[in-house]
Specification:
336 residues, single chain, binds zinc ion, 7-stranded mixed sheet, alpha+beta, disordered N terminus, 11 helices, Metallo-beta-lactamase, Chain A, 17 strands, 27% helix
Length: 336
């Protein structure tokens, strides 16, 4: 196994995650994971292995790709349909406008949010959940296919054990074919997957053809006010030529509406597309907060605003019969 080389990238990640991420401990295999992904990206013959099961089988470290799955890897999600057996950690749903949305679980294994994360909840309320080990959750991203374009909502954990690259490969999606990335906010578990450790420890883009859409309020807060922002600054600098800043209420490409979901972070955004509402980090403990939207997680930076946004947006979703997609909802990442 390749020895992990300390790099500026890794140091920046380590420094940054301590202050702002829900995943405080980088996985032990973070650098080998990043190296494996870098290997995939650097080797287009593997990524574009059209119908060549042998190549995929030989490259077991690259992905969960199975022999039966190795068809047309070069063309976005052309071969994937909701009817086909979904690759592990994914689920595809068709939206009212004919677009599809695929939940992609980014964390490895099971994720439980601990009781300590919900200081707002009384002991008796928490005990009534009967979840002493913690509340089932995930770290998730969502891929929408609409108008022949691929749109990713958030990019996950990246070097902290993120599974996004592996799952995209299993879905026959080449990262180069992702046209847009919408960001709900700038916490590390939502943006670190935009980058990978490239040659000589240099940070490189994962989605090199994607336009990145971020809220102006969120961007300004992280660039100017919030401390421990090295990761955020470095990623935004890397993507500066493809970065688009929006305001709440803006109608964005492919009919995406940006909505004020402020509280978790200063510019936390929900996105609506058709009957889908991407709610970002509105909820960290779904089983608790679905009936108690007044309860925040301790990750929520402004608790009063966070609770107000949670109530308002959940009501909006109910009133409009929207399917919610949440970055920390339990598998499979959707809630009615
Ligand atoms: Zn998060």
């Amino acid at each position: 196994m390749k020895k992990a080389i300390p790099s500026l990238f890794a140091v920046v990640l380590a420094l940054t995650v301590a202050g702002c991420s829900e995943s405080k401990t980088p996985a032990n295999n973070a650098s080998s994971e990043a190296a494996a992904r870098a290997k995939v990206a650097e080797n287009p013959s593997v990524n574009a292995a059209t119908g060549n099961a042998a190549v995929n089988a030989a490259n077991a470290s690259a992905a969960n790709t199975t022999a039966g799955n190795a068809v047309g890897a070069n063309s976005a999600v052309a071969t994937h349909s909701a009817e086909a057996a979904a690759p592990a950690g994914t689920k595809t749903v068709t939206l009212a406008n004919g677009a599809s949305v695929t939940w992609i679980q980014d964390n490895e294994g099971k994720k439980l949010m601990p009781r300590e994360l919900f200081s707002d909840a009384s002991d008796s309320l928490y005990a009534s959940l009967n979840m002493p080990a913690g509340i089932p959750a995930s770290v998730s991203t969502f891929l929408v296919k609409v108008d022949g374009k691929l749109i990713l909502f958030d990019a996950g954990l990246g070097a902290w054990g993120g599974q996004l690259a592996k799952r995209l490969d299993a879905l026959n999606v080449n990262p180069d074919s992702v046209g847009l990335v919408y960001l709900t906010h700038f916490h590390a578990d939502h943006i670190a997957g935009l980058v990978k450790n490239g040659t000589a420890g240099k940070m490189e883009k994962v989605f090199k053809n994607a336009a990145v859409y971020a809220g102006k309020v969120e961007y300004d807060a992280w660039m100017n006010k919030i401390p421990k922002n090295d990761l955020q600054k470095n990623i935004m600098t890397l993507y500066k030529d493809s970065l688009h800043l929006f305001a709440f209420g803006d109608s964005l490409p492919h009919g995406v509406l940006a909505m004020d979901a402020v509280g978790h972070t200063p510019g936390h955004t929900a996105f609506q597309i058709s009957n889908l509402l991407v709610i970002g980090d509105l909820m960290h403990g779904y089983a608790l907060q679905k009936n108690h939207p007044e309860i925040n997680s301790n990750y929520d930076m402004d608790k009063a605003k966070s609770a107000e946004s949670r109530k308002r947006i959940m009501q909006y979703a109910r009133d409009n019969k929207l399917l919610m997609a949440g970055m920390h909802l339990p598998p499979p990442g959707f809630a009615e």
